[in-house]
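tool_call predict_complex ligand=inosinic acid
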Amino acid sequence: MTAPKVMFDEKQIAQRVVNLAGEIAQRISGDLIVIGLLKGCFVFLADLVRALDQAGLSPQIDFIRVSSYGSGKESSGNVNLTFDETGDISGRQILLVDDIVDSGRTMSFTRQMFESRGAANVWTCTLLDKPSRREVDCGADFTGFIIEDLFVVGYGIDYAEKYRHLPFIGYVD
Ligand code: IMP
Ligand code: MG
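tool_result ok
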């Protein structure tokens, strides 16, 4: 595999994250728990919550981990919850943060899970969306960038656990 090529550089990402936080703050006010889907969200979420602070929101932060991908590029098709220490969220507003909506299964599964636990509102935010790959009807409420069907890495996103450290969003062949 050749080195990842730049799709969005650090400056483009930073600008979009600030604008995205503004969009979120226009639609959500008051109590909020941001719940990140590990591991892919970790860089994006760190930037997003600081931008949310600038936009006037004071969210609590938690993480869960779900797995659908194996070690490679193809989804296994079913979603498993493998880490979850979120407490009682009944009556709370939740913003789920993921790196990519691809088939839509992860976001759809996770949204339904928190709705069934009695959240007052479950909002969803993704850094990237690949609508051409959708298999489950599930868009995010807030989307950073809509992209074509390319395999992306960097800014927290991996290919077989590599490239998460890259400061830009790149794509690999
Ligand atoms: P979905 O359940 O098919 O929507 O898959 C969502 C998850 O698949 C994301 O959270 C990513 O972890 C992973 N994924 C989808 N596309 C890519 C990609 O291009 N690069 C790396 N991971 C991806
Ligand atoms: Mg992932």
